[in-house]
TrEMBL record:
UDP-N-acetyl-alpha-D-glucosamine binds at R92, R121, P122, M123, D124, L125, D304, V326. It catalyses: phosphoenolpyruvate + UDP-N-acetyl-alpha-D-glucosamine = UDP-N-acetyl-3-O-(1-carboxyvinyl)-alpha-D-glucosamine + phosphate. The active site is at C116 (proton donor). The gene is murA2. Phosphoenolpyruvate binds at K21, N22. Residues 6-405 form the Enolpyruvate transferase domain. It comes from Thermacetogenium phaeum (strain ATCC BAA-254 / DSM 26808 / PB). This is UDP-N-acetylglucosamine 1-carboxyvinyltransferase. One of its GO terms (cellular component) is cytoplasm.
Amino acid sequence: MKLLIEGGRRLQGRVRISGAKNSALVLIAASAISGGEVILDNVPKISDVLTQLEIVRAIGGRASWTGENTLCLDWSGPLEGELPYVHAKKLRASNLFLGALAARQKRVKIPLPGGCNIGSRPMDLHLKGFHLLGYQVSMKHGFIEARAGKIEGNRIYLDFPSVGATENIMMAAAGTPGITVIENAAREPEIVDLAGFLNAMGGRVRGAGTDVIKIEGVSEFRGARFSVIPDRIEAGTYLIAAGISGGEVTVENVITRHLQPVIAKLQDVGLDVAAGEDRITVRRRGDLLPTDVKTLPYPGFPTDLQSPMMALLSLARGTSIIVENVFENRFQVADELKRMGAKIRVKGQTAVIEGVERLYGTQVRATDLRAGAALLLAGLAAGGVTEILQAELIARGYEKVVEKLGALGAAVRVAGDESGEPGAKSV
Ligand code: EPU
């Protein structure tokens, strides 16, 4: 799929932020633990979520949309303990069924997960956790298998605060007798959401949002209704869109404190930021200023907004430095931005961005979801038309992005759309 962007229009207006992709993906997997009916509200209808639902159905769960963003999941039937490779290879988050199915039936086999091409993404920390809980874990022929031996809560220290490892261990521990303590746990808002959801289903989880999470295992869970938190990365992307296009955009339905590290950087580049509890307005008042960015686990600057930030800094008056500390392969977008006129040098995990006067539209390729978002942002500011190839990667994580940008005044359309109207068709 191709996206065409006619650059040079200032974005203006308000946009409602969807539910968080990375929360919805883990809550869908975790709902299996209930053994009953779960209703999730504020679920974004994006392709990663649809893939996760294919997995739900393939292993014996039932899933249906009962409202635009309301999902009903029914786990009362018997389940397969093995995830099909064909679905799992499409999505890294398929690995989250490891913890969910372990909690539910103590035996699970998943293919080594696929996903965006942003780094090696090993599973060693997840497996260390399972081992310490008493699971026998084996990795053979591209599958990970975990079988409960004598399982019991334990103290698990993570060498790195991995989001996925924290989530998988939380889920498995929720159904493991005794107390599990995860140290150096990830502190992302999505972890707090998962803890809230596990507790709504009858789990006992405390401390989520800090680096020590305590889980008291229980033997019975129940169905629940729960609402997904707003997507801080989608919100950050629209705020950067305001800055790069020289306009004024208000994001609504956000949790402002989840965006503090992003707001601080937007202020550093000279943007006006006005924040209420659940809405943020960004306005450009003059030149963009250079700044330095280091990606870090939450509450540091999110790696998922690193590429969009690189697009923004390409147009700053001076030299900026970005250090990527989370994924080793997240600078591929630099080559594509350079095709649009950006001046970027990459050495290892550091990128030096010398701001230029303007970017030019040309043909570029999305190499991963957030790289695609960065190219879309660059296209909004570039002179002429930008054509993004492999734009379906953007649809993995941004709900109705063509409509939302169109409503803010951008000229973005899916190539091949007969009407030719900007914003006529969704990605
Ligand atoms: N890591 C290990 N060993 C492990 C697990 C992770 O070395 O066992 C390393 C990874 O290689 C990476 C770092 O730890 O260098 C961070 O990985 P983490 O496990 O925290 O990431 P993840 O759970 O695979 C989630 C999000 C990502 C987001 C990261 C970091 C989901 C479904 N995905 O991935 O989202 O970038 O956390 O915040 O929650 C995206 O939305 O575009 C995206 C990639």
